Structures are given as structure tokens and as C-alpha cells.
Amino acid sequence: MINMSGNGTHGDVDPRTPVVVGVGQVSERLDDPGYRRRSPVELAADAARAALADTGAAERAVADAIDTVAGIRQFETSAPGATAPLGRSDNYPRSVASRIGASPARAILEVVGGQAPQHLVNEFAGVIAAGGSEVVLLFGSEAISTVERYAQDPGRPDFTEHAEGDLEDRGYGLHGMFSRHFAEHGLTGAPSQYALIENARRARLGLTRDEYAAAMGELFAPFSRVAAANPHAAAPVERSAAELVTPTSANRLIADPYTRYIVAREKVNQGAAALLMSVGAARRLQVPADRWVFLHGHADLRERSLLDRVELSVSPAAVMAVTHALELAGLGAGGLATLDLYSCFPAPVFNICDGLGLTAGDPRGLTLTGGLPFFGGAGNNYSMHAIAETVQRARQAPGSFGLVGANGGIMSKYSAGVYGTAPVAWVPDRSSELQAEVDSWAAPAQVHAADGWAVIETYTIRHGRDGTPAGIIVGRLDADGCRFIARTNDGDAETLELLAEAAEPIGERVYVRSSGTANRISPGPGHRAAAAAVPAAR
Predict the structure, then answer these.
(1) Residue 483 phi, psi (nearest 5)
(2) Within a 13 Å sphere around the CA of 495, how many CA atoms are in the beta-carbon half?
(3) CA 396 → CA 56, 267, 391, distances in Å?
């Protein structure tokens, strides 16, 4: 990428160069004075209005110029059969567009995943650079707090609405993230799957349970501090590292090693939007040049499915995406002034930190919002808030650079963007070439029905709301090295003891039997004697 920060001026920039010219955020909490019970459409429309105002240009003229709108899916539209207790729009992007008086030629509903906001910025920056669009509005929102509060209330609001116009619905995009086989073994949610990644990383690093818990707390305590100062945060409370990882009645165990405080908080009412346009359109609409923020680097990559990864504790594709975005920007990680790393759980943050050589105590901080457990995991739209914050910080420090790292699925999809005010020419990324490399990586052999002696490769204990535990492992068969998933039998205290109390369950031998649709495990011989001889590390 040609970096013109040293001698370029805005007058030198090709008129088809894409720039972010407006960002907006809105939020409301149930206990806020003036709480309005806004629907997802209303929250997104208010964020879009804020983005129009943020351009510093005539808002009506900018709205009239919007030719494309793209919306992020809410949780209630993110899976087949999902319900909307308060109703929903049948065309979310056009409902939002109509609220601001825009009549775009194109309306898009993006696929599921936290990568979606940054992916859309990357995609439509390229579309603008190719002359396929001039003004694009991106937005997303969630009203989960309101929906849960009023779902059973006789006086509940009705969010049902119809919007005329065509819609490019890109589908759910869930392939490789969830399966019936996973569900049969209790892997029905993100916490248990990320916990498998987390425990694999702990074992790879040779850390005890207590040491790793401390590391997770030290990673996220600074995030809570940022959230405490953010007026849009859903949980603006600063917590200590120890408080975050110590189980209590309020901070219950979710899936070993996670407590409630260190997983994404989905109960939010938040919306965010970003407005992109060509430099030519920005000049025509008289958007002041000091509002322009350029995309200096960008990349989008998909990781192999969880069980197809040779090493379960990492996502090399995510690191490749960030590294490539930095390469296009002509930067190393040290050249960034700000970072916001997607933080639904510690693992995705650790993954990028490990890959870039960053530490939890980086003086720049690893979030601008406060992160998903504290700012709020606004469904698939969290990173739109990160983009808004990054754009604002870039304007406040002209010539600086900020990174947004957006994670989707089970560390499955990653989109990265590097933002800065310095004028820069648009150059396409090499993501397709890098994706071909990722897709060529070898995958371990797998078996659905597993029988015989095996070794635990990683594990978690999922805790129900009533406290009932269920053990889940990924293992390798002794006979042929095939990878499999299995779960404990109901009421099997001995196997749960192995997973919960052994100094290091990973590497322990177990016996697995296929039973109906699920594989079941039991401890190998001598477990009780070994457990008695080795003090637990908890």
C-alpha cells in the first residue's frame, strides 16, 4: 500500500478512494432516566442519525446520497427458528433507512458473526474504490435487555414492522461453527467451545489452573476499567483481576475455566453505525476533510473448523489477518496508537496478543470500548462500536493509527482494519491468496463414533444454571490417533473428578465408548490412586 502520510495531501487523493466520514453510537439501560424501550430498528436509526451528524455536512443531503445500506443481524435473526418475542422488522436494513429518509438502491443483511462490521467496512471500501458505490451506511443494533425484560409483560411493546423494497439476505453463514454432532455432546453454545480452546492453551503453556485464572483476570481487569468510564457500557463497573475469576453466587461458573464476569455480556440495548463514501462524494457533499478517516490496511480470513485445527489452542488465520492488515498499512504492532481486540472470551484476545507479541499490560490498552464482557457483547455488532471509537480517536490524534480486530464464530472468522487520518491510496488486500493457504493446511483425522483407549487433548466442564456439571473432552484414540469428542455419563462423579481435580487432565488416559448418538468416557485404570498421590492445582 502506498502510504502518503509523509507528503500527501487530501487534494492528491483519487476521488474514488474510500473514507469513513461519520460514526455514531447510542445506548440505553433499563434503569436509565428517560429509558425509551427502543426497538433494534429505532436504536440503529438513532445511531445512523448520529453518524450523519458526525460528518459535519448537511445531513439531509448526505442521507439522500446513500446508495447502499447494510445491516448486521440481531441474535433473533441469527439462526433458523430463532424467535422474536416482541416482534421484528421483516426488512431490517430498509426499516432503518426509511427512518432517516434514505432510499438506497441496495439493501443487505449480513451473515452471522462478530467479524461482520469490519468485514462490511473492508468489502464496501473496495466496492467504492472500484466505482460500484459512492455512499454506504453500515449499522447494527441489539435490544436484548428490553426484549428479555418485556417478553412476558402484558404491556410489552410491539416491534413488528414491514418495510417495502428488495433485500439481499446473505443467509446465516453458520457452516463449520455448530453441528448436530457437537450438540449431542453438549457443545451447544460458544462458552463451552471456547473453553476447550482456553484449556488447550493453558496446557500448552504449562500453567496451573490457578495461574491461568490469574492471567485471564489480569487480561480483563483493564477492560473493565475502560468500560467503567464509557457512557455506552452495559456493565460500567471496574473489577479487580481476582474478582473477575473468583466464583461467587453472582459470578457463577459457566464452563471451566470461565466465570460469568469474563464472558460476553449479551443483555444490552445498543446501536452503532458507520458511514463510508468516496472522496469524490465527500467533496461534493462538503464533508470537511478533518472528518475523513482512511482504511490503511484490511484483511478477512476464515479459520479451519475447530476439530480441523492441528493445534486447538490457536487460530493462525486470525493472526494472519491482522498481520496482513498491518503489512498493507506499512506498520508493525508498535506503530499502532490504539487497539480494539474482539473479546467475547479471553482466548481471542490472547490469540492475537501471542501472535503479535503484545501483553495484557500493554500501556495502549487492548480495547477502546471496554470489551464484550463489560461494554457489552452487542450480538454480531460489537465491532461497529469499536470502529466508531477508533475513528474518533484517529481524528483526535491526526497521523496516528488504530487497529480493529473483529472475531466471529469459534475463532472461525476474523476481519481486521487499520484506520488513520493520513491520506492513503486504496490497494486491494491478498486475503483470497492467504485463504487458499489456510484451506490447504492438513487436518487431523476424525471419527464420530469412538471406541477404545484414548488421551484427553482438551476438555471443559459445563455448569448448568442449577450447578449441574457435565464434562466434555476432545481426545485422540490410542489405536490410530483419530480425534473425537465425548462427554461424561450423567452422574459419573469419578470422571468429573478427573477433569475438575487432577493436576492436569490433558494427557490423561480415558476409555471411550460410542453409545447411540454420543461418545461417553470413563477414567483409565489407577486414576484414584494417582489423584490421591498428586495434590490438585486448583
Answers:
(1) -90, 145
(2) 25
(3) 15, 31, 9
462: part of which helix (H) or strand (E)?
A: strand 452-463
Q: Alpha helix (H) ranges present in 307-345?
A: 316-329
Residues in the chain: 538
C-alpha 291/C-alpha 51 separation (Å) is: 11
The CATH topology of domain 452-533 is: OB fold (Dihydrolipoamide Acetyltransferase, E2P) (2.40.50)
Q: Is the pTM of this model over 0.85?
A: yes
The residue with cell 462458552 is 191
CA 159 to chain centroid, in Å, comes to 26
Instruction: Give the C-alpha separation, 16 to 425, whole Å.
Output: 9
Tell the residue number behind the cell numbers 486470525, with chain if given.
318
- CATH assignment of 10-177+265-439? 3.40.47.10
Q: Residue 82 carries which side chain, given as an amino acid letter?
A: A
Sheet holding 106-109: strands in order across?
Answer: 168-169, 106-109, 68-71, 135-143, 269-278, 18-27, 293-302, 413-420, 401-408, 338-341
pLDDT at 188: 87
- Residues facing 470 on adjacent strands: 462
Instruction: Find cell 425509551 and name the residue.
Output: 36
pLDDT for the residue 533:
41
Which residues in the chain come in under a pLDDT of 50?
Answer: 1-7, 528-538
Which string of b and e fits 411-446 if b means at least 16 CB within 10 Å?
A: bbbbbbbbbbbbbbbbeebebeebbeebeeeeeeee
Q: How far is CA 502 from CA 282, 489, 538, in A?
A: 62, 18, 9
140/46 Cα distance (integer angstroms):
11
Is the Cβ–Cβ distance between 443 and 405 less than 8 Å? Answer: no
Looking only at the bridges linking them, the beta strands covering 68-71 and 135-143 are parallel
Annotated domain spans of the chain = 10-177+265-439, 452-533
Helix (H, G, I), strand (E, B) or coil at 521: strand
Q: Which residues contact 211 (CB under 8 A, 6 or more apart)?
A: none
Beta strands in 234-335 (DSSP E): 253-255, 258-259, 269-278, 293-302
| pLDDT score for 531 | 38
Instruction: Indicate if the alpha-carbon torsion angle 327, 329, 335, 339 is positive or negative.
Output: negative
What's residue 529's pLDDT? 42
Residue 464, pLDDT score:
87
DSSP state of 524: P
Report which DSSP code applies to 306. G
